[in-house]
Model the fold of this input.
Amino acid sequence: MKVFGTKSGEFKLKKNKSHVNDDKTLRASDVQQLDLTWFPIVKDFEVVVTEDTNMLSFYSAKRKEQLTTFPRHYALEEWDEEDIPLGTRTEPYIDRKESWQVRIFEENNFVYILQGHNKNIHTWYKTPRNTYLKQWIKLLKRYWQTNIVIGTTSGEFNIRSINQEAHINNGGLLKNINNDNLHKVKLASFPIVEDFEILVGKKKIDYFYFYSASRNEILNNFWGWPSFANFLSSTNISIDRPFSDVDQGWQVIIFEHGEFVYVLSGGEYTNKKNIIKKWYKVKKEMFELECYKLLKENCR
Done:
């Protein structure tokens, strides 16, 4: 199996059944009370991605074992250092899909990784924090080097040439925002993007970026042509009937009001503490022109 991340470029898995926890299980409800000294240490931890599907795995070459697998695709070109899965023991990073889940948190210079089903944890281990972060950065750099985007007016460039510290809202956050309470947001406080563009990936054309060349900043991303096409086909989008789209770890809200189009984007959507990371507005005519250019290009 061809993969990105291992030194050899492929998995070397044992033919016999191997498991870092000897097939023991833990109750998911007991995670907060676990004795972390029980967790086996994986010193040769690696993050690898299969070549054909971009599926993620955590791997130990010494054990020849896939320790943790992620049953879905990741757009790693989109990720920065802050997107590396990591939380605290009280607020861990959690990813779920159907009956699968993974929890990741750091404590005392180790990163703890637990994978299981809804009720039971079947894999748990820890790796040094420096090793965990180093392996992630090593993998992401491979994607950063190949992620070329085509701008509607700015030309062609590597996405990593963009200033990753730029932030249109100076790092501020809007909390507890959802489709039903947008009226409480002060629309006058939204900064105006005068040079708004929509960029598209050269190799993966189903990833889009909202961009400002003068700020050298990606304002937010949009995952997938079908989703964006759904937005383009939407009618009567307003502050009372906004367009919204969510995926695991991503969300966007867009609506028209007066002469502007307002865009709000953030991370994981939750009903209790929905957080918007970036918000801004664009002249309606400019936004529609960029959408038209993208639609024309995609339909060739």
